[in-house]
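Translate structure to sequence.
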């Protein structure tokens, strides 16, 4: 049982990375697809990585075998060079309450520049505050911002399609 959950989690991360990379061409778009290997359903709200600005993306993956749902916020930032190298100060809040755990930052080089991905996996206790959120604030290594109305609507649409709302 533990192996299956761990395997599904690793597949989920691979899918999230793949979808985030493909998001470079889709601004504010909802994607809904099934992983042909695992049968997992991945629903996402994806945007283009923008230079010198953080954009919010949201991924949900439901595993039909374990009936577990993994939710992950992915903040993306494009730039000429890595901005968050050696930094792990990530804080995401909904209505002042901190959400997420085990956050991490990864980088993907491009022909010109780099995209940084800030992964914020969510716990089940984060679901209700997120579903009711009027405001979502984040701080990454001193850069602060808030989700736009479109981004919050995208998060809600993912939750709705996964039947979590």
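Result:
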């Amino acid at each position: 049982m533990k192996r299956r959950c761990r395997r599904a989690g690793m597949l989920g991360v691979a899918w999230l990375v793949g979808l985030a990379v493909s998001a470079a061409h889709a601004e504010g778009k909802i994607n809904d697809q099934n992983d042909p290997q695992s049968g997992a359903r991945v629903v996402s709200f994806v945007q283009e990585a923008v230079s010198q600005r953080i954009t919010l993306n949201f991924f949900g993956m439901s595993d039909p075998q374990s009936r577990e749902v993994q939710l992950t916020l992915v903040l993306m930032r494009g730039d000429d060079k890595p901005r968050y190298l050696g930094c792990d100060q990530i804080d995401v809040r909904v209505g002042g309450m901190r959400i997420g755990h085990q956050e991490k930052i990864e980088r993907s080089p491009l022909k010109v520049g780099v995209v940084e991905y800030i992964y914020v996996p969510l716990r089940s206790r984060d679901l209700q505050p997120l579903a009711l959120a009027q405001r979502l604030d984040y701080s990454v290594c001193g850069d602060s911002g808030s989700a736009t109305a479109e981004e919050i609507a995208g998060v809600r649409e993912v939750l709705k399609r996964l039947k979590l709302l």
